[in-house]
Specification:
single chain; 504 residues; alpha/beta; Isoleucyl-tRNA Synthetase, Domain 1; six-stranded parallel sheet; four-stranded antiparallel sheet; 14 strands; elongated; binds zinc ion
Length: 504
């Protein structure tokens, strides 16, 4: 039976431009989706946008637009980002979609039928800027520290979700890794939070406070608050409304990829909702960190905000994808600097990988008349080397360490370049045709493996390399591709066009 794989990104709120941190998350998810497709798994990759909330209402009014016009415009920027980053998402879910709204209402009713939703009055301090109740202890001199404004005292009717009922079960699921949280430090963080006790969560707002959202079923005065609206995108986006074939095939999700700031919502509230809805739990939540710019927190005032589209338009998506996956620790904070980007681009991509591909193809074309030489394909040492590389690579991806996987790939390119230096094909060309054929066959095979290893990370580059190798038209399954010696003697090959122009 074919395996399935379902991966999601979080859905960003559409009140700001897409930033580099979300670009990284999108690429992490895309790498996993492409990797699983390459293995032959039936794969679904979901991303989308969170489009409700009174902030939208407020901005739309300022701009003289309708709410829908504003979110359409803003959602387009995120669709464009996915497009420009070469994300292979199968669907783009929007919380203003009608089928999403119906799915969320269905879920609400299910939770209600479990006696997990109840109405109560909520009294507290509300910051309009935060669009949230704030706690006394978080205020600075009576002001919201984010907005430097005194919050208003508010009393309102809310529906609440009985999250407290599920605390113990959530804790057990995480401890037993029925739900795996990666990295371990985040697992401990959420377990500590749960041990302090999970309180019931407010699930709705009166319509006079929040009028841009999903209607609460059978109560015209109440509108759903973000948790029960946004989190269910992961099921609405694959057909929870009708529980169709796609939903049955792909739920439970294999991996939710999220930032460290939204761990509690995903590893506690969402899990409680799924338990209440009697749905299977996600298999894993992968948590990444934040990206600083030139060593500092990104901010408009420091003028150090990195726009992913700037780098994409200048160098293409692949170098940016490579940099973000290799330089930013997959589950930790990392830094983006122009100097480092250029160093990695020139070092890893132009000098190491690009140079290998170009010289191996140039020599093979020159000495063997643009075709794969008839060399010995049973070269034990390289067979073993390739096996080791694949094992390290697959292990790293399975552990959600994409940085390590790329380090394995890059060191394989280094190894292949060293093999060129040691065997000196240009000397063999004058002395030993049989040895030359063997060496260049081996090198072409290494280039082929390199292309396959890079495919989830830099798909366009891999397409190019496969075309040089005459591989693009041929279908093979994953285990055939990973084995040594797939290239056929006599296959027409081409000289490589430069994959990466050096940055000077
Ligand atoms: Zn505030």
């Amino acid at each position: 039976m074919t395996k399935t794989f379902y991966v999601t990104t979080a859905i960003p709120y559409v009140n700001a431009k897409p930033h580099i941190g979300f670009a990284m998350e999108l690429i992490q998810a895309d790498v996993l989706a492409r990797y699983h497709r390459m293995r032959g798994d039936e794969t679904f990759f979901l991303t989308g946008t969170d489009e409700h909330g009174s902030k939208i209402d407020q901005v739309a009014r300022e701009k003289g637009m309708t709410n829908q016009e504003l979110v359409d415009e803003n959602a387009a920027a995120f669709k464009n980002l996915a497009d420009k980053m070469n994300a292979s998402n199968d669907y783009f879910v929007r919380t203003t979609d009608d089928d999403h709204k119906r799915a969320v209402q269905k879920l609400w009713k299910k939770l209600q039928s479990q006696d997990d939703i109840y109405k109560d009055t909520y009294e507290g301090l509300y910051c309009v800027g935060c669009e949230a109740y704030v706690l006394e202890k978080d205020l600075v001199d009576g002001m919201c520290p984010n907005h430097n404004k005194a919050p208003e005292k508010l009393k309102e009717e809310n529906y609440f979700f009985r999250l407290s009922k599920y605390g113990e079960r959530i804790k057990e699921a995480i401890e037993r890794e029925e739900l795996k949280i990666v990295p371990k430090s985040r697992k401990h963080e959420i377990l500590a939070m749960i041990k302090e006790g999970l309180k019931d969560v407010s699930f709705s707002r009166p319509r006079n406070i929040l009028n841009w959202g999903v209607d609460v079923p059978d109560d015209p005065d109440q509108v759903m608050y973000v948790w029960c609206d946004a989190l269910p995108n992961y099921i609405s986006g694959i057909g929870y409304e009708t529980e169709n074939e796609t939903f049955k095939k792909f739920w439970p999700v294999n991996a939710h990829i999220i930032g460290k700031d939204i761990l509690r919502f995903h590893a506690a509230i969402w899990i409680g909702m799924l338990m209440s809805a009697e749905l299977p739990l996600p298999k894993a939540i992968y948590v990444h960190g934040f990206i600083t710019s030139e060593g500092k927190k990104m901010s408009k005032s420091l003028n150090n905000v990195v726009d992913p589209l700037d780098y994409q338009s200048k160098y293409g998506a692949d170098p940016l994808r490579y940099f973000l996956m290799k330089e930013i620790p997959t589950t930790d904070d990392g830094d983006f600097s122009k100097a480092r980007f250029e160093a990695v681009y020139n070092g890893d991509l132009a000098n190491n990988i690009g140079n290998l591909v170009s010289r191996v193809l140039a020599m093979s074309c020159k000495y063997f008349d643009n075709s794969v030489p008839d060399g010995d394909i049973n070269y034990e040492l390289l067979q073993q080397k390739a096996r080791e590389v694949w094992t390290g690579y697959e292990k790293s991806i399975a552990a959600f360490d994409l940085k390590k996987a790329l380090e394995v790939v890059e060191s394989f390119a280094t190894y292949a370049n060293k093999y060129v230096e040691e065997t000196q094909p240009w000397v063999l060309a004058k002395e030993d045709q049989i040895k030359l054929a063997e060496v260049l066959y081996n090198l072409l095979e290494m280039v082929r493996h390199l292309s396959l290893l890079l495919r989830p990370f830099t798909p366009t580059v891999s397409d190019q390399i496969d075309e040089f190798l005459g591989m693009s038209e041929i279908e093979h399954d994953y285990s055939e591709k990973k084995s040594w010696g797939l290239l056929k003697a006599g296959t027409a090959i081409k000289k490589a066009t430069p994959l990466f122009a050096r940055i000077d």
